Amino acid sequence: MKVVSKLIPVKVYNILIDLLPMIILFSVVMISIRVITCIYSKEKIIFYKEIKNLLYIIYCFALFHLVTTTDFESFSNNFTPFKEIMRYHTTSVLFYRNVIGNIALFIPFGFMITDMIKEKAGKSNILITSLITLLTSTTIEVIQMFIGRSFDIDDILLNFIGGLLGFVSYQIMLLLYKHIPEKYKTNRIKFFFFIFIIALFILLFIMLYEVAQ
To answer: Which residue of 41, 55, 70, 204 lies most exposed, with the fewest beta carbons within 10 A?
Structure first.
């Protein structure tokens, strides 16, 4: 654990430690439910899809925990677009934390939603991804008004941009995947391909946190 804490920022490490009991409990419950339902329904378990869906849920837990507990500068509500964004100098720590950070946090969300839509509907849809991103971000901001934090429309705009970048990231992943020879397009390759993308997102998050310190 000491080695891990040295490899990632302290705040990120603390968030992971705080979430660990909930993640373990939820994982045990969800895995048990999936195994039992698959046995009864005789549904074939596709390992990489099950892991992927579980990681999506864990990400949502971490995202909500982060946006509702992280310290920030102002407790006043902002309903004027770009008002808060324009306050930050592009080279300042606050710009990286509040502007780039709000975008980066929702890139995996846009990726996740696009993937789930593609899996169920057979095709991706930028309008649906955009709508779900806006609804989720707006809900977070409204909740923050009732837990001692504040509503900021700029956060919604930045989260929306992050969601769109997540959609674009997914399309790029599809293009790369199409160039893989057919004989290698197995579930195992899909799983490692997915893990590689997740690792890139985690690396981006850690790099952002290092810059914002």
So the answer is: 41
